Amino acid sequence: MNYDKAVSEMLNVDGALAAAVVDYSSGMLLAGGGSPSIDLEIAAAGNTEVMSAKMKTMKMLGLKDHIEDMLITLGTQYHILRPLTKHEGLFLYAVLDKGKSNLALARRALVETERNLA
Fold first, then answer.
1. Which residues, other chains included, contact 40 with Cβ-Cβ below 8 Å and sequence gap of 6+?
2. 79 backbone dihedrals φ, ψ, rounded to 5°
3. Under DSSP, is residue 109 helix (H, G, I), strand (E, B) or coil?
4. CA distance 92 to 80
5. Cα–Cα dist 30/40, whole Å
6. What is the radius of gyration, based on Cα positions, of the chain?
7. Which pLDDT tens digit goes with each residue over 9-52?
């Protein structure tokens, strides 16, 4: 699997500020790139907690489903977390400029990036 290529693909999305591939079992950043003003190490660790909490909650509720993606909307940014179905324990993470990005196209690009990682 080429994680750097996945990051590069995500950074090609209009309005992309940063992107990463994260291991949410450890919180480790496997690959990342984009704006140096976004500390991807901290983002990876923090979003690992978000992903783990949602997985735990789904299990406690007995939900037999999967997460396609999670969207966190800030004042000026979108943060998208997409767990990889074929790579257990990993997720794609994209940070987008809210004013310069198309959320539907960005989500579609992450689906395509996931396909290309297979």
1. 18, 20, 29, 32, 33, 34, 93
2. -120, 120
3. helix
4. 8
5. 10
6. 13
7. 999 999 999 999 999 999 999 999 999 999 999 999 999 999 99
pTM recorded for the entire structure: 0.94
Tell me the two tokens of residue 18. Answer: 């940063």
Angle at 58 between CA 90 and CA 92, to 5 degrees: 20
Q: For the chain, what percentages of helix, strand and coil (3-state, to nearest 5) are there?
A: 40, 30, 35
**Could you tell me the two tokens for 112?**
């395509």
Nearest one of 5, 4, 34 to 19, comparing CA atoms: 34
pLDDT digit string, tens, across residues 55-104: 999 999 999 999 999 999 999 999 999 999 989 899 999 999 999 999 99
